[in-house]
Amino acid sequence: MTTMLMITMRRIFNGILNLIYPNLCEICGRKLAPGEEVMCLHCSYELPRTNAHRSSFNVVHERLVGTTPVELGASWFFYYRSSPYVAMIHRGKYNGHPELLRILARKYARELQRDGFFDGIDLIVGVPLHPLKLMMRGYNQTDYIVKGLNDITGIKTGKNLKAARYRKTQTRKGVFSRWLNSQGDYKAKNPIELEGKHILVVDDVLTTGSTLITCCNAIHEAVPSARISVLTLAVTKLG
Q: In what order do the strands lie in the sheet with 198-206?
């Protein structure tokens, strides 16, 4: 079977499948037009973007200030609990659809790439899950975000962080308690690979910042020469 014939058959199959199970917008439920992914054009336009990456000191830096040295900070949209956009994160993180986060990461990466955000970044590293939590969930959602960024940028990815301790959710704890309890949760792996590198540390949502602070500090302690920037898909508003 020739390559062209295989491509034609795949297109016909996908067309039939879309008629039976149409791709719908995750936000409004409308049928997606050709070229749209996850969100329709209208809902994508209405996304509560932070545009944080366009400022040298932004909401990401504010959350991490005084705790860990971070160069660039990026977070795609504000995380409001009542917002339908949050459901996309939850579906990818908890409901067995991590590929959704990969698509979202690709969409965000295209926006960032146009503004030169990735210029000079050598390595993309995701926040890891403890092996026990990974076994229970079946996947690490952050890995899919990292893959989505790599799909667009081609920047090398690495597994240079490990979760050293298992910890239950801290959603009910305050900012200081989260930070205190997170100390020592993450360690750097293969630090020689990080020497002199500009590393982009990636997570799904930035809340109090305790997880990212601990990850970034683990890298700095192991490799003082490393430069670190941070990216998340969403960021909460405190207070």
A: 73-79, 227-236, 198-206, 123-126, 157-158
The pTM is what?
0.84
pLDDT tens for each residue of the chain, 239 residues long: 565 555 555 555 444 434 434 589 999 999 999 889 999 999 999 999 999 999 999 999 999 987 778 999 999 999 998 889 999 999 999 999 999 999 999 999 999 999 999 999 999 999 999 999 999 999 999 999 999 999 999 999 999 999 987 565 555 554 444 544 555 689 999 999 999 999 999 999 999 999 999 999 999 999 999 999 999 999 998 75
Strand boundaries in 82-223, DSSP class E: 123-126, 157-158, 161-163, 186-188, 198-206
Tell me the pairing of strands 227-236 and 73-79: parallel
Q: Which residues contact 33 (CB under 8 A, 6 or more apart)?
A: 40, 41
Closest of 207, 228, 225 to residue 216, by C-alpha: 228
